[in-house]
Amino acid sequence: MFRPMKLIAACVFLGLASAQAYAQSEVGSGQVKAVYGNWKLKCAQLAGAKQEKCALVQDLALADRPNMFLTILVMRAFDSDKKILRIVAPLGVVLPAGLGLRVDGTDIGNVKFLKCWKFGCLAEVIVDDALVSKFSSGQTASFIVFPTPDSGIGFPAPLAGFAEGMKGLN
Question: What is the pTM of this model?
Answer without folding.
Answer: 0.79
